[in-house]
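FW: tagging you since you asked about this chain on Friday. Here's the raw sequence from the shared folder, copied in full. Didn't touch anything.
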Amino acid sequence: MAKPVIRLRSMRVGFVGAGNMASGIARGWAAAREEPGAPEAMLFADAVPEKARALAEAVGGEAVEGNRKLAEASDLVLLAVKPNVLQEVAPELAQVGTPVVSILAGTSVARLHDALPDVQVVRVMPNLGAQLRQAVLCVVYPECTQAEHRERVDALLALLGEVIELEEELIDAATALMGCAPGYLAMFAEVLADAGRREGLAEDQAKRMVARAITATGGLLDFRDPGELKRAVASPGGMTEAGLGALEGHGFERALRAAVDASLERARAL
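HL: got it, structure written out here
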């Protein structure tokens, strides 16, 4: 029997798993703790108890030994384990019945329902921007989701960034963009900063220049089409035009499209 939905004012969120994405989400909610709808408490359990304790200490939460104990003490469980561990952790969670928000890659709502019968589940694919409260969070709500539960989850996720509700067949494509993009951009930044160092810039200077340029570009893309912005930066005969030409000549677009295709292939194989 599933637990009744608890209202926002008494929200206690339990994390099953304390890895990188769970850490980003927990840190984002910790930064928002004074805002309406923020968790009043966060609990953590992990197969490696030291990880749960370290994360709990970092965000002012509580480490709990055992997934069942955590679920019993929580109003909502954030499921943040590896997909191949789902069948291992699901029985105890199903016995308790606490509603679950899953961030498991490649794990459909149908698979979640099979593993967690009679438990309210929501599927969310976030990215690491959650730590800065600048995430993209793609959400799949099953048709049976209670209106009050949807409202509660929306309020929690909105504290971390932009919430986009999707049909489930689009979730893999969305993840290949917003979920993997931080990795692609980090690689891009790494190459640019290294080029700056080779030309004599200090490492810290080069990293700060690239980081600020990427941040500003993200802000500009809220208002301008990518193609328009590219043309605005690339003055005829200028440095940017020359650089873009070199990227095209070395297959940049093909390489990036191949990266997205590879990410999609991996997601669909999970």
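FW: Strands lie at 12-16, 41-45, 62-63, 76-79, 100-102, 121-125, 135-140, 161-165.
HL: agreed, and The radius of gyration is 21 Å.
FW: great, closing this out.
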